[in-house]
Amino acid sequence: xxxxEWQDIPPHNKNDLYVIAQSVWKEIxxxxxxxxxxxxxxxxxxxxxxxxxxxxxxxLLSTLVTDDxxxxxxxxxxxxxxxxxxxxxxSFAVAVVRYLEEYHxxxxxxxxxxxxxxxxxxxxxxxxxxxxxxxxxxxxLVDGEWSTFENVGPRWKWKDGMSKFExxxxxxxxxxxxxxxxx
Length: 183
Description:
alpha+beta, four-stranded antiparallel β-sheet, 8 strands, elongated, 183 residues
């Protein structure tokens, strides 16, 4: 089967792919608990503080639970919450991509990217970016143009088969795809 390049897809099809991806992004994001609440619950329980104290003073956890304590905790609950190399961003991207590829076989060609602790998926055919940190849902990257979420924060660019990312700290990375762990 010949690979279809993004430029070869008629414009109405690229838009259809984006509309479908946007709908799936929103449905999965709102239907599932893609939050950090399990991590907050773990910290709260480890610190031994009641919710009312934590809600009154959110910085309380950082004074009661150290990074060393978390790293030394080998309990099953800690491993599930912190010690994996995947998290909300990975599971969200995989869930969206899996749905799109299962219900629209051959229409999408997603690759996963690791931004050094944050993972996203990008479709080579349509330019669609799946990022759990987006406030807009799926984002369509145009070849050679910088894109941002709501015109602030990190920037993305896709050019000549390479995904480029510039974080809010000014650090830039050129990224190549990786395969997320199937553990």
